[in-house]
Write a structure and sequence with these properties.
By secondary structure, this protein is an alpha/beta fold. The chain has 2 domains: about 130 residues, Ribosomal protein L1/L10, rRNA-binding domain (Ribulose 1,5 Bisphosphate Carboxylase/Oxygenase, 2-Layer Sandwich), CATH 3.30.190.20; about 90 residues, Ribosomal protein L1/L10, domain II (Rossmann fold), CATH 3.40.50.790. Helices cover about 30% and strands about 30% of the residues. The protein is built from 7 helices and 11 strands. The strands form 3 sheets. The protein has a 5-stranded mixed beta sheet with strand order 1-11-10-2-9, covered by helices on one side. A hairpin with a 4-residue loop joins strand 10 and strand 11. Helix 1 crosses helix 7. The two termini are about 20 Å apart. The relative contact order is 0.29.
């Protein structure tokens, strides 16, 4: 249950109309959040209407690359094999805590559910060498999938360091059995302009997947991790 501030309704008929009220709402969410002794995330919740989610064609999962990084210090898990393993083991990537899992380590953690659950909980997003995807799916998908953390597949002709740098700006989005989409879109000390650009990019990608586009969105909430939510109610 959200604590709400600045609840309002406005006539918004297209995505371009959303930018100014969204900027104001994000600013309000950040300003009204009580001070904390850690860097809070900023989250966006999009409420969907007039879609029958019992129909498989109305459900989706996708990765959305945003204009800006979503964490001051990100946590990214990397399932790496072949040349990807060499690339990532020797890499220094700013602002990322990396966990590199090769085939041998994957064999170890699949037999240790507690270790796998901890991995799924502690890392925001995962990438994987494409040839490892079937192995990851077979061994540990049951721990990653419920958290919407199945990895981004990385083809072998792409540098794994580049893939991790892209993952810093990427969020996994899912519309399944509940008519809402929730994801982290930044952190509290980010410029509000950057947060706004991230949310606009997120909503644009989601609108393109909805059968009636922007008309399938009823409400948008923005909030910090532990702060009150600000709602934009779309008529």
């Amino acid at each position: 249950m959200f604590v709400l501030v600045g609840v309002g309704s406005m006539r918004i008929t297209k995505l371009e109309d959303l930018q100014k009220p969204l900027h104001s709402s994000i600013e309000k969410a950040v300003m009204t959040a009580p001070p904390r002794n850690f860097e809070e995330s900023v989250e966006c919740i999009i409420v969907i209407r007039d879609i029958d989610l019992r129909r498989p064609e109305n459900r989706f999962r996708m990765f959305v690359k945003l204009p800006h990084e979503v964490a001051k210090v990100d946590r990214i898990g990397v399932f790496a094999d072949g040349p990807h393993l060499t690339q990532i083991q020797s890499a220094k990537i700013d602002g990322v805590i990396l966990e590199v899992i090769d085939r041998a380590k994957l064999e170890v953690i699949r037999a240790r559910p507690r270790m796998t659950k901890k991995l799924a909980k502690n890392f925001r997003i995962f990438v994987a060498s494409a040839p490892l995807m079937t192995v990851v799916a077979r061994y540990i998908a049951r721990y990653l999938a419920p958290r919407n953390k199945m990895p981004i597949p990385v083809p072998l002709n792409k540098n794994m360091v580049d893939a991790v740098n892209e993952a810093k700006k990427t969020v996994a989005v899912r519309l399944s059995t509940t008519p809402q989409i929730a994801t982290k879109i930044g952190y509290k000390s980010m410029p509000v302009d950057h947060l706004t650009e991230n949310v606009m990019a997120l909503i644009s990608s989601i609108v393109n997947k909805l059968p009636n586009g922007f008309r399938n969105i009823s409400d948008i909430y923005v909030k910090t991790t532990m702060g009150p939510a600000v709602r934009i109610s779309i008529d």
